[in-house]
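Q: I have 202 residues here and want to know how they pack in 3D. Can you give me a structure?
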Amino acid sequence: LYDLERVEFLRGPQGTLFGSGSLAGAVRILTKNPDLAGYDASALVDIGLTDGDALRQRYNGMVNLPLVTDRLGLRVVGFYRHEEGYIDNVGTGIRKSNELIDQGGRAILLWKPADRLSLRFLVSHEDSNPEDSSLTSPSLGPYRRVSDRPDLFVGKLTNYNTTIDYQFDRARFTSSSTYSRFDQKFFVDLAGTFGGAIAFGL
């Protein structure tokens, strides 16, 4: 979510523009386009402690490069998160089991071969690797949980997008096409749903 243009919350059914999956509304996260006129860069570092001793590190950076003034530009964003765990899993015997490493970024290439025409190419990638869930079992005390094995929500997501925009005299044409690939490993221990009487997981 670093280096965004804006976030839009669209209430109510949005099926006309965004399809059947937006019956209750839609959230649009709009990234910044490359600046074709000047160089720019920014960074954000977030360091903190969870429960006093679990270190949280988050690093974000952006570089904007005008390759051809007013015609071609590149904007690259990268991020890295390393958050030490603070939950003890008494089932697996692992202390601070919910350590997280999450990294990725995106690159946007904007080309304006003519004043009325623009082509935008985007590639984004995220590699999320949490070691265990941050869910707790309150009956065991604070910051403790129990499961037969670590809960996994590991995923690699890559998006490719091409957007073509042309301004006619009395109308505007926009075409946006996206290809996404999501490789995920998912496991959650739900034996606690039945008080541990039935071994049950997804």
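Q: Anything worth noting?
A: The first strand starts at residue 4 and ends at 11. DSSP finds one helix and eleven strands in the chain.
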